[in-house]
Specification:
The chain is an alpha/beta fold. The chain is built from 18 helices and 13 strands. Helix 2 (57-65) packs antiparallel against helix 3 (78-85), helix 2 crosses helix 10 (232-246) and helix 4 (114-128) runs parallel beside helix 5. The chain binds pyridoxal-5'-phosphate.
């Protein structure tokens, strides 16, 4: 329970060479000082009795996350943080034409699941970076959805500046618009280079002690615990609701790239929530399925696919999965990985309406394909496919396949109606440094 006394929850580094820290220190640090990722020092086990099935998402989230904030300055504020962050729902909707459901994670302001993590982190940071002190700059590189979720979450937050770097011409026009339309404390930089260039520039800035002395920096990328932990909330909420009605755990199909969203599902299951199998669905970047099959992890350069938010060849959260499963996730029951190529993504989007009455985004389509493979293999159990984004975000892929326009959800339409501006930036560190100091 929030504010309960007990031993503080500590977070250790996956690399084991950094001192354990409490939640707020981990949130402010992002990466552990030894280069590893923060993980719970010990995984708490939750009693399902602590959850009231009638609770809404924000209340479920506050119960779920309370043990992780034990002994931390954020503990008391947790119910307020989840209430301010989760102002929209994550409905589990039955799928027409199959005994399956879709867990819709796209009802937030930027129409992708990253709104949950980014908004939680922003509300937590609001407590950790008091207004009136030195402003902190949230610096992120984005290939699309992360940047808009982070920009929207921190927009007009006192004490926070936001700098978003994206590869010019390599995000969809609507994604670019979302990044540039906020203004105020949010600066969008369109970098003349690739996403890898953007990431390199951000890394250089974090390694630049002189810059950081003048401009304190904080990170909001997918390795941040402040995004990872809250993502367990919608899995908990959906699984508890399903368990109450059906008396069985909820099997999940999670489209994945960097393993942030999927690792949250797996961690929620470790806590004791009624989650069954977790099937990971990747695009043609097959690093996970190869790892699970061979037992050897081999990161590689990413391939460009239609499901571009999952174009990851070397997922950073793989280090957390390796920590949890002692390096060999493929040997464990209850987790699998499947790869889906562009041709099949197109087919699932094209026939989604006829089969299920739904238009899927390219990422969600990977999940639908993995469900269909299970059905063909004779698996009749109920599964929830996780819908990571609204199809209207990827209209240039989706609309030609379904043959009609896809209605834009109101929050997204509101963003698209604003004027947008991004500053051009060469893929050169001195230019970024000057822009941040200027
Ligand atoms: C970020 C993103 C993903 C991949 O999530 P990870 O946490 O990186 O696995 C999938 N779909 C959409 C729409 C995304 O924005």
């Amino acid at each position: 329970m929030p504010g309960a006394v007990g031993p503080p929850m500590l977070f250790a580094s996956t690399r084991g060479a950094a001192p354990p820290v409490r939640l707020s220190e981990a949130l402010l640090a992002g990466l552990a000082p030894d280069g590893g990722l923060y993980v719970p020092h010990s995984v708490p086990r939750l009693s399902l009795d602590a959850f009231d099935p009638a609770d809404d998402l924000a209340t479920t989230a506050a119960h779920l996350l309370a043990p992780f904030a034990a002994g931390d300055p954020l503990a008391e504020a947790l119910p307020a943080i989840t209430r301010e962050a989760f102002t929209f729902d994550a409905p589990l909707k039955p799928m027409a034409g199959d005994d399956a459901s879709v867990l819709e994670l796209f009802h937030g302001p930027t129409a992708a699941f990253k709104d949950f993590g980014a908004r939680f982190l922003a509300r937590a940071m609001a407590r950790l970076v008091p207004p009136g002190g030195r402003p902190v700059t949230i610096l992120v590189a984005t290939s699309g959805d992360t940047g808009s979720a982070v920009a929207s979450a921190f927009h007009r937050q006192p004490g926070i500046e936001v700098a978003i770097l994206y590869p010019d011409g390599r995000v969809s026009p609507r994604q670019a618009h979302q990044l540039g339309c906020l203004g105020d404390n949010v600066r969008a930089f369109r970098v003349a280079g690739s996403f890898d260039d953007c990431q390199r520039l951000v890394k250089q800035a974090f390694g630049d002690a002189a810059l950081r002395a003048e401009r304190p920096l904080a990170s909001a990328n997918s390795i941040s615990l402040g995004r990872l932990l809250p993502q367990m909330s919608y899995y908990a909420h959906a699984a508890l609701g399903h368990f109450r009605v059906r008396g069985e755990p909820l099997h999940l199909v999670v489209p994945t790239g960097n393993l942030g969203n999927a690792f949250a599902a797996i961690l929620a299951r470790e806590l004791g929530l009624p989650i069954g199998e977790v099937a990971l669905a990747t695009n043609a970047n097959r690093v996970l399925s190869d790892w699970f099959a061979s037992g050897r992890y081999e990161g590689r350069p990413s391939l460009a696919t239609l499901a571009n938010a999952m174009d990851v060849g070397d997922p950073s959260n793989a280090e957390r999965l390796a920590w949890l499963f002692e390096g060999r996730p493929g040997s464990r029951a209850g987790i699998s990985a499947d790869t889906v190529d562009d041709e099949v993504i197109r087919a699932r989007i094209r026939d989604g309406e006829a089969r299920y009455g739904e238009v899927f985004c390219p990422h969600t389509a990977c999940g639908v394909e993995v469900l269909e493979r299970r059905r063909r293999a004779g698996d009749t159990r109920h599964h929830a496919v996780v819908a990571t984004a609204h199809p209207a975000k990827f209209e240039t892929v989706v609309e030609p396949l379904v043959g009609h326009p896809v209605a834009v959800p109101p929050a997204l339409a509101g963003m698209l109606a604003r004027p947008a501006h991004a500053e051009p930036l060469p893929a050169d560190y001195e230019a970024l440094r000057a822009a941040l100091l200027g």
